[in-house]
Structure formats: C-alpha cells, structure tokens
C-alpha cells in the first residue's frame, strides 16, 4: 500500500525534446489511477519515471514519503506489467514468477508458497511448468500479473497491459485486473490509450495530451465535465459534440436558437454536449439534419449536421430513425462551454 | 516364357495398380547432379583413405590405386602413438590433444569476448559506443596474416611462445562474433531488460540469467564456426610453437612427410591417416550441432 506523490515532475530528453511538462499529482492509498491519452502524450514516460526506468529530469517523486528520484527500480517496491508481457522466454512459468523473489534472496519455501498462492489466484496451476511460448496471450498476461503479485509491492504499474489481446479477452482481463486490484488493495497506476479501459477501471483518471496533464478526475467528472475540448473529444465513444456558438446577453445561441438561458460573457463560445444528452423534441428546438443512422443494437447513433456543423445524437433502440430532418433539444444541465480558442472549459 | 515375362513385368512395375509410374526426369537430373557432385567432393578423401591402407612403397610406385591393403592398423598405430621428430613427444595423440585445446579454447574465448563486447555496446549507455563497435568491426580488415609480425613480437616478449595461452589469446578478439551477438542482442526486446531490472537483476545477473540462455542457439552456431576455424589454424601455430610437444595436428602432419632420415620413403600412410583423423572432429562437431546451428542463425525464440 502506498501513497505516491509527484511534484513538478518534468522530462526532457537529451535531444532537447520535452516529453513531459512539469506535472504534479498525488495518488492515495489503494487507489487505481489510469493515465490515458493518445500515443506520444507522455503517459508511458511518466509511468516509466515512476518505475525508475527513465530518469527524472526535474521534480520530486515520493512513494510513501520517501524520495525515489535516484533509487534503483528494484528497490522502489514496485512491480510492473508490460505491454508485451516481457516474460523470460527460456524460463518456465514458475521460474518467471519466482525470479524477482529469487534475486531478493527470499527463502525457498517462501518462494514456493507465494508462487503457489499467485498461481491459484490467477488459475495458472496447470501451466506452472510450461514455457511462455506454450501459453496463449491471456495466460501470458496472467503470468506477468503473477510475477507482479508475488512481490507484494507497494505499487503496481501497468503499461498498456491489454493492448496485445483481442477484444473479448481484453474485456475479460479488464475485469480480472480490476477485481484483483480491489482484492489486494494495492495502489496502481495504469497506462492506456483506450478510453473505455480508463472509464471502466479507474478510481481516478488522468487525461494527458502532448506532455501535459489535461485533467484529473473521477471517470464521471471527466466524462460529464471535461476540462477542455481535448478531453471532451478524447473520452467517450462517440465523442462529445463540439459546436461553435455565440454567447450574447447571457444566452448561448446556436444558429440563432437559444440553447442555454443563463451564462456569463459574450462573443464566440464552443458548446459541448454528449450525444446522449440530446433529445428529440416534438417541436421547437434545433433543426438537425440526419445524414446517417448507425445501428448499434442497444441504441442508434444519428450522424448529421446542425446548420453546417457536424453533430451526432444518441437515441434509444425503440425510436425509429431515418435520414431527414428532425428537431432536437439539448439538456441544459449537460451543456459544457469551452473557450473557442484555448479550448479550456469556461 | 510368358510366365517369365509376366514375372519380369510384375517386378518392374509396382504390384497392384498396373499404371506405369511416371519418371520425373527433373528429379533424376537433380539427383544425378548431386551424386556426381558429392562423388567429386569425396574422391580426394577416398584416395587419401586408400593410401593409408597400402604400404608407403606402393604409394611411391603406383600412386593412388584401387587396391585396398592391410596397412591401416599399422598406420593407425604409428599415426596415433609413435612420435615423429626428435623429441619423441609429438605423437598423434598429443597433437590431437593440442588441437582440441586450441579449437575449444579459441571458440570459447571468441564467444566469451564477443558476447561481452556486444553486451557492453548494446546495453550500456557509453559515449562513442557505436564508434567502438565500428572500430571493432574494421578489425575484420586486419586478419592475423596482416599483423603477424607485431603479434608474434608481443607474444614472444610476453614469454608466451610454446604455450597454450600464446596459441589462443592473440586470436580470440573477434569482430565476427561481436557483430553477430550485437545483432542478436539488439533484437532482444527492451522490456526484458526493464522487467529484469525491476526484478532486481543487476547487469551481471541479467547477462548470466537471461541473455546467455537466450543466446544458446547463437552460441552453438558460433561455437561450430569458431571451433572449425580454430582447429584449422596453420600459420599461427607454426609461428608460435617450436617445441614438438606443442604441435597441433594441422601443423604436425607436414612434418611427418618432411622427415627424411637417410633415404627413407616419406611415411605417406601415416601422414594421410593423420589428415583423416584431423578431419573427423570438425565433421563431428558440425554433424552434432547442425540443428542448433540452423536454429541459431535463423530462428528467434524470444
């Protein structure tokens, strides 16, 4: 169990590229934090700095109050699960799991017991004497998990552990990892580019973009109250609708129709609204031209245009939809306003 | 008559289906080429083998022939256990031992040095690591023959003439092995290093626990190449060993045919048999390790 604290952590590569602008956040005991962002946003770099695999250019990293900047990865009391599992190909599953303990001069009977426990927890018992090449992707991932578990670390680090698995297995492993983390209560940092993984697994999400932290918050906060247009469009599938609007006399207007009655300021503004927060209106509301109906079984997505801006709405499966013109209304409390240029939430 | 004909047909065509088996002429030609080729390659060996079975006088008189004599055991006895030269110490057995020490020491030394050099170049953030590599690589342009005088002088000044160290050490720095291991190490996924670091394996442990076992097919492949290369060294052992008990097989054979005490006929049978014996270990190494050899150079089990 551990508290992790990052204070103005910065990473500059020797070639001068800044992979991470000074970033700070704290992770509480037993918390599951997901770092999410597009590739190249610095999330893996951040994780690897916590692991000690990358040097920290500036700032201070503490785990349980102890400054870790210059501590060897082996001594940080962490365990890491890698994207391609990083199992030792020439060792059996048993040896793979035990290797870290062996290096720590753990007594043999303790190692045996811990390996047995981990194997039971992960349903690996019958595979202990196999080599990684004889296992499926999901099993390999479990072995990697086992290797992390036996160490009883203060902190789990996951570097996109599920991205090499197929969709079905990914869903299953997602649940397994989350359940395991709950059960063990180990503080975890999980890196992914998949926003579904982030939403479903996290206690708290850290959204990153271009080496900066865009927003830190619970999945609900991130989803409903994004701090920027980047977060709004990155999280959620389909993403939040972003529509150029005008703010005039306390009212927000899209194409001349008022969508929100009480707002401060004036001038151009970007309106963000989740597709499911748009309802079909019998009359009044905005004119929405449906170009395409996407059938998803449980619900339908209507893609089209609001005036000349792209827009998507989400309707239940019992609502018939055909391309054409419909009237829609936006739920006032679900509307997010963003600065038209900086993209920051207002 | 008819019965005999039928029998003949039965024998020639395959029993049940009376269809004529088609002869694939391309296969016949392929095999013919291969058979002729291997006969061509084997002919000198067979000639040498034949000459070890007849008395030396026969060799002088008739040269290679089809006669198979009864001298093989005698020649074997002489080749393996009888000393040639003056000191009485360079028996075939002794030369065989020296050759093995040279071949194995040479191969293991090259592998060890090459692996460690590649390990340093690939895994450690050294300044000028790639420069170091290319400097090592350019030594391919400086084979022993080019630097033989300075090498000899160094060995001589170090007092290593007529020693195994002197035979082996000056030869074990290997650009080839370094190059192969470097390529191999670069293909080992980086995550393995990182996982090992987190698992508490330091540089030495990582090398021994992870990298060496991963490279075992590569090591086997290198061992074959280097063993045969070391075994066949001629020039360097000739320079370094002046005492007869240090002679290797390849170097010692020649001496036998050279010994002309009075008007004696050179011991062709003995020398030829030694040549055959000198061929056997490399052949065995290749046969036993060829599986690993192919694996090491083609397969990657990472």
The portion of residues assigned to helices of chain B is 55-70%
Order of helices and strands of chain B: HHHHHHHHHHHHHHH
Q: What structural category do the secondary elements of chain A indicate?
A: alpha+beta
| Name of the top-level CATH class of the domain at 92-298 in chain B | Mainly Alpha
Shape of chain B: flat
Which spans of chain A of ≥5 residues are poorly predicted at pLDDT below 50? none
Count of folded domains of chain A: 2
Total DSSP E strands of chain B:
0
- Largest contact between chains: A-B, 24 and 19 residues
Under CATH, the homologous superfamily of the domain at 92-298 in chain B reads: MetI-like
CATH superfamily of the largest domain in chain A: P-loop containing nucleotide triphosphate hydrolases
Distance between the termini of chain B: 69 Å
What can you see in these coordinates?
The complex is a heterodimer of chains A (346) and B (302). With 346 residues, chain A is an alpha+beta fold. Chain A folds into 2 domains: 4-233, Rossmann fold (3-Layer(aba) Sandwich), CATH 3.40.50; 238-338, Nucleic acid-binding proteins (OB fold (Dihydrolipoamide Acetyltransferase, E2P)), CATH 2.40.50.140. Helices cover 24% and strands 35% of the residues of chain A. In chain A, the strands form 4 sheets. Chain A has a 6-stranded mixed β-sheet with strand order 6-7-8-3-9-10, sandwiched between helices. Chain A has a 5-stranded antiparallel β-sheet with strand order 13-12-11-14-20. In chain A, strands 15-19-16-17-18 form a 5-stranded antiparallel β-sheet, with no helix packed on it. In chain A, helix 2 (93-103) packs across helix 3 (108-121). Chain A is elongated and about 75 Å long. Chain B has 302 residues and is mostly helical. Chain B has helices at 2-12, 25-53, 56-62, 72-81, 92-123, 129-138, 148-157, 164-168, 175-187, 190-198, 203-214, 216-231, 235-240, 249-258, 268-298. The longest helix of chain B is centred in the middle third of the chain and has 32 residues, at 92-123. Chain B starts with a helix and ends with a helix. The model of chain B is unreliable at 1-15 (pLDDT under 50). At the A-B interface, strand 6 and helix 2 of A face helix 10 and helix 11 of B.
């Amino acid at each position: 169990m551990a508290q992790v604290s990052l204070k103005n952590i910065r990473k500059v590569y020797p070639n001068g590229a800044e992979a991470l602008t000074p970033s700070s956040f704290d992770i509480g005991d037993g918390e599951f934090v997901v770092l999410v962002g597009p590739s190249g946003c610095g999330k893996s770099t951040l994780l690897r700095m916590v692991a000690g695999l990358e040097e920290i250019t500036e700032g201070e990293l503490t785990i349980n109050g102890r400054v870790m900047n210059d501590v060897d990865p082996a001594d940080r009391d962490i365990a890491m699960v890698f994207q391609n599992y990083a199992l030792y190909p020439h060792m059996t599953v048993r040896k793979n799991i035990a290797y870290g303990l062996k290096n720590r001069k753990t007594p043999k009977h303790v190692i045996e017991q811990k390996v047995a426990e981990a194997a039971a927890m992960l349903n690996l018992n019958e595979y202990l004497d196999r080599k990684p090449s004889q296992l499926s992707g999901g099993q390999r991932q479990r072995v990697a998990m086992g290797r992390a578990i036996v160490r009883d670390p203060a902190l789990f680090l996951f570097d996109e552990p599920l991205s090499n698995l197929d969709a079905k297995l990914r869903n299953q492993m997602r649940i397994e990892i989350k359940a395991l983390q709950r059960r063990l209560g180990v503080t975890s940092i999980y890196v992914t580019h998949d926003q579904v993984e982030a939403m479903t697994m996290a206690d708290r999400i850290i959204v990153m973009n271009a080496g900066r932290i865009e927003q830190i918050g619970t999945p609900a906060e991130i989803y409903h109250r994004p701090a920027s247009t980047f977060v709004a469009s990155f999280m959620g599938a389909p993403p939040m609708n972003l529509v150029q609007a005008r703010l005039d006399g306390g009212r927000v207007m899209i194409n001349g129709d008022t969508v929100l009655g009480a707002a401060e300021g004036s001038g151009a503004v970007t309106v963000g609204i989740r597709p499911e927060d748009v309802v079909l209106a019998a009359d009044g509301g905005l004119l929405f031209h449906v170009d395409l109906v996407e059938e998803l079984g449980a619900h339908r997505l209507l893609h089209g245009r609001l005036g000349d801006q792209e827009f998507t709405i989400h309707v239940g499966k019992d609502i018939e939809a055909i391309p054409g013109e419909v009237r829609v209304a936006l739920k006032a409390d679900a509307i997010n306003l963003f600065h038209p240029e900086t993209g920051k939430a207002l | 008559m008819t019965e005999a004909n039928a029998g003949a047909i039965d024998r020639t065509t395959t029993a049940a289906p009376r269809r004529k088996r088609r002869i694939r002429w391309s296969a016949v030609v392929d095999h013919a080429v291969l058979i002729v080729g291997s006969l061509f390659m084997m002919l000198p060996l067979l000639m040498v083998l034949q000459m070890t079975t007849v008395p030396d006088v026969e060799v002088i008189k008739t040269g290679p022939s089809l006669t198979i004599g009864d001298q093989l055991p005698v020649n074997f006895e002489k080749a393996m256990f009888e000393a040639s030269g003056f000191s009485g110490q360079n028996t075939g057995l002794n030369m065989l031992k020296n050759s093995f020490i040279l071949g194995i020491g040479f191969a293991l030394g090259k592998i060890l040095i090459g692996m460690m050099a590649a390990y340093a170049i690939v895994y450690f953030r050294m300044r000028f690591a790639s420069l170091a590599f290319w400097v090592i690589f350019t030594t391919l342009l400086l084979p022993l023959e080019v630097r033989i005088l300075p090498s000899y002088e160094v060995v001589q000044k170090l007092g290593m003439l007529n020693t195994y160290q002197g035979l082996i050490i000056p030869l074990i720095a290997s650009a080839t092995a370094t190059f192969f291991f470097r390529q191999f190490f670069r293909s080992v996924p980086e995550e393995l290093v990182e996982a090992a670091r987190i698992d508490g394996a330091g540089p030495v442990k990582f090398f021994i626990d992870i990298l060496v076992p991963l490279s075992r097919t590569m090591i086997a492949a290198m061992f074959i190449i280097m063993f045969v290369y070391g075994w066949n060294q001629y020039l360097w052992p000739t320079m370094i060993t002046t005492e007869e008990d240090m002679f290797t097989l390849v170097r010692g054979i020649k001496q036998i045919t050279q010994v002309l005490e009075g008007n004696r006929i050179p011991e062709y049978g003995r020398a030829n048999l030694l040549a055959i014996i000198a061929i056997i270990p490399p052949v065995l190494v290749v046969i036993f390790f060829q599986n690993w050899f192919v694996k090491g150079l083609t397969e990657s089990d990472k």
